[in-house]
Request: fold
Amino acid sequence: MELNVRHIVINAVLFQALWFSAVMLGWVFALPLLCLMAWHLLLTLPAIPWVRLALLACVGILADSLASGFGFYGFPSAEALMAGFIPFWLVCLWLGFVLTLIASLQWLRRHTVAFAFACAIAGPASYWAGVKLGALILEPSALFVTCGIWFGFGLVSSVVLKPGANTAVPSYGARNVL
Reply:
């Protein structure tokens, strides 16, 4: 099922609000927006591939945690780190971002290579904006690492969330989660 323009815009606006809340105010303000994004999609889509979205979020969280662990970037508030993982506000961002893949970014995700290159540009730009707002610290080589992470994520997510796959509600009326 295709979302209408109103729902696509709502998804995009909610994610931008989530991004600014997470980066500038922390996870306490981002989490309600994340829940609102998920609730909005529950109301507007007949079937959501929750398992695939969760796996993609885990891939992004793990990639960021490894990059952080290797010292490519760090976070000014060390107490926000959870046992070697990225701060929870960044986890919220990854969870919110994957929710845009089936809504506001679905049109671009259909074009695998273009989407991967868009990710390789927009992902690092997002990190750079986070640096300017004081949410993280980047090493000079980190922009290249984040370009690679985001390019790879764009390719993987385009394959995992193939357009048209699992978007119909099964005839028995249950939600399709894979």
